Amino acid sequence: MKKSLFGVVPILLLLIFSGCSSSESLTSVKVAEVTRSIFYAPQYVALEKGYFEAEGLDVELQTIAGGDKVMTSLISDGSDIGLVGSETSIYVEAQGSEDPIINFAQLTQTDGTFLVARDPVTDFSFEDLKGTDFLGQRKGGMPQMVGEYVLKEHGIDPHEDLNLIQNIDFANISSSFLSGTGDYVQLFEPTASQFVADGNGTIVASFGEASGHVPYTVFMAKQSYLKENPEIAKKFTRALYKAQQFVQENDAETIASIVQPYFEETDVSLLTSSIKRYKDQGSFAENPVLDEEEWENLKDIMDEAGELPADIAHNTIVNTEIAEEVMNE
């Protein structure tokens, strides 16, 4: 018996230390997402299915509400990678940054907001918005700029034809609408579907369907970080691309069951309907490449909103080489 026991102990110790070694070998990557949203489902799929770990990365995800706050975190090295709208990188570049913020992997390719009416609406027309109180998003952010762009495309002047409310923080928009502010509100999923389920509103239009493809939400990092950590950026993008393929190939119910831990207070049926809505309108990018056509569409929307500070070329703060290399493997 003693001989047998002594033979087992070294094996157990080997397994224990091997496990510690494996865990310690993971490279930490701090990621700041601008909000927690089912709109970012591929990111949560990559986390839950262990795609980042398989690449040797330990992704520490934190939610920092507000694009400006995500940028501050990136610039101050509070985060390595940010998940936020591409417009923020344009704002930073226009200020003459010595260490530009580079877009290197796209996650979503349409607007993710929906127009929700407080009262039941049949046969909705954008004309119905005239003279109403419209609770929009933060000025200068992609949701607000896309919202204004779509309204103008339908003949509505957002600053003349309705009362545009845009002085409420992103995190408080839904609660403000619930408390009685606004006749219409611009919301992301699953909040929009939750409002419908609770009898607090009706989804009447999709801004994503109406505005076309844009680099709406993109993973980005400082140029210096990408230069110093090219392999990390490549591994990160490879894991993301695998998740993007999974989302394209699987149904909404399957995806919802995987990402449920990130939305514990939301019923899985609502997550499923939200994911299906995004899949049906092509919101999830099929691959991580941010192409020039999308970039130009982004600038057109910003320009139309009067928020384009400078005409920043695609190749100035967009790196497609990492994504293309991963896709060609």
How would you describe this protein?
By secondary structure, the chain is of the alpha/beta class. The chain folds into two domains: 27-110 and 214-327, 3-Layer(aba) Sandwich (D-Maltodextrin-Binding Protein, domain 2), CATH 3.40.190.10; 113-211, D-Maltodextrin-Binding Protein, domain 2 (3-Layer(aba) Sandwich). It is built from 16 helices and ten strands. A five-stranded mixed beta sheet has the order 2-1-3-10-4, with helices on both faces. The longest helix is centred in the first third of the chain and has 23 residues, at 2-24.
Descriptors:
2 domains, disordered N terminus, D-Maltodextrin-Binding Protein, domain 2, alpha/beta, five-stranded mixed β-sheet, single chain, 47% helix
